[in-house]
Amino acid sequence: MKKILILESGEVFKGESFGNHENSFGEVVFNTAMTGYQELISDPSYCDQLVCMTYPLIGNYGINRDDFESIQPSIKGLIVKEVCDFPSNFRSQMTLQEFFAKKNIAGISGIDTRRLTRVLRSSGVVKGRIADADSDISTVISDLKNQNFPTDEVAKVSTKTSYANPGRGFKVVLVDFGSKLGILRELAERDCDVTVVSHNVTSEEILLINPDGIMLSNGPGNPEDNPIAIKMIQQLLGKIPIFGICLGHQLIALACGAKTFKLKFGHRGGNHPVLDLAKNKVAITSQNHGYAVDQESLKQTDLEETHVALNDKTNEGLKHTVYPCFSVQYHPEASPGPEDANYLFDEFLLLMYQFKNVTV
């Protein structure tokens, strides 16, 4: 079925539909990863987005049962140059097209993804729609310009009820803003006794659990759209060690008085170099974010910059100078991407151990 991708900036790309053939609206972004499309598709941080893959062939190793980062994908659509009809991998259980059809996800192939990526790098991320080939383009562009982005993405992807992932080690509360299963997996490998709670949990509810540490997960959207979470963090700083990842990192910054801003086209891929300022060591990281912490605003806070992106010098890590709290903008759990930075989970355990010994 013929489809077109229409951007609010006026560009039109012709292609063919796969998966769910319905029209789909979302923010158009690009990801530079060569592999890991299954983890990417199921990453809740892509809620309400149309993702362009810069690698030209997607779906060549199929879909398997093990590589999901959420149970129900929230991505609005996938934009590819070529979709593979005959995947080859011993773990493959279905094609990408079959999975998209089952999960009602829109896909469009045959797109000049190189040109689209250059447009997004030049103009910044824009609203777009996968539409019928005979759609009135000027009407769609007008609709896109007048359509607002949702502000409830975190509520869409966060768990509605608390649940446990038992262990015999440190008791950790994982606040789910759209958490990837990779975070839970890393905590489980360290035998943490994890309780996963909703995004709108209060500080009082967390204190009733009496955890040794709090993990603030990744998630979609503008961090400023989460005032309840920001207040919760402010009330728990100094009482319990806190580790934030991605959106959790941004929320810690906002809770401490810093500011965030929207990046022109974001960081999305599996090969982003990040410098650890204290160790003077570079890690290749997995990233997926459209917002960043304003470094200038850190001067008015008790936060210290710990990591910097080498590509554009934006902030990638923070540490509180008074309280046991640190965070990173990238994904130490990877999935997909390199696992250079998963030692940060060990540093979280060390922080909990030190805090417990000091307060006993």
Automatic annotation (TrEMBL):
Molecular function, one GO term: carbamoyl-phosphate synthase (glutamine-hydrolyzing) activity
Parts forming coiled coils: none
GO-annotated biological processes: 'de novo' pyrimidine nucleobase biosynthetic process; 'de novo' UMP biosynthetic process; glutamine metabolic process; L-arginine biosynthetic process
Reactions the enzyme catalyzes: L-glutamine + H2O = L-glutamate + NH4(+); hydrogencarbonate + L-glutamine + 2 ATP + H2O = carbamoyl phosphate + L-glutamate + 2 ADP + phosphate + 2 H(+)
Alphabetical list of InterPro entries matching this protein: Anth_synth/Amidotransfase, CarbamoylP_synth_ssu, CarbamoylP_synth_ssu_N, CarbP_synth_ssu_N_sf, Class_I_gatase-like, CPSase_GATase1, GATASE
Chain ranges of the Carbamoyl-phosphate synthase small subunit N-terminal domain: 1-131
Keywords (A to Z) from UniProt: Amino-acid biosynthesis, Arginine biosynthesis, ATP-binding, Glutamine amidotransferase, Ligase, Nucleotide-binding, Pyrimidine biosynthesis
PROSITE patterns: GATASE_TYPE_1
Domain of life: Bacteria
EC number: 6.3.5.5
Membrane-spanning residues: none
Record HAMAP family: CPSase_S_chain
Function according to Swiss-Prot or TrEMBL: Small subunit of the glutamine-dependent carbamoyl phosphate synthetase (CPSase). CPSase catalyzes the formation of carbamoyl phosphate from the ammonia moiety of glutamine, carbonate, and phosphate donated by ATP, constituting the first step of 2 biosynthetic pathways, one leading to arginine and/or urea and the other to pyrimidine nucleotides. The small subunit (glutamine amidotransferase) binds and cleaves glutamine to supply the large subunit with the substrate ammonia.
Family stated for the protein in its record: Belongs to the CarA family.
Protein name: Carbamoyl phosphate synthase small chain
Source species of the chain: Halpernia frigidisoli
Lineage start: Bacteria, Pseudomonadati, Bacteroidota, Flavobacteriia, Flavobacteriales
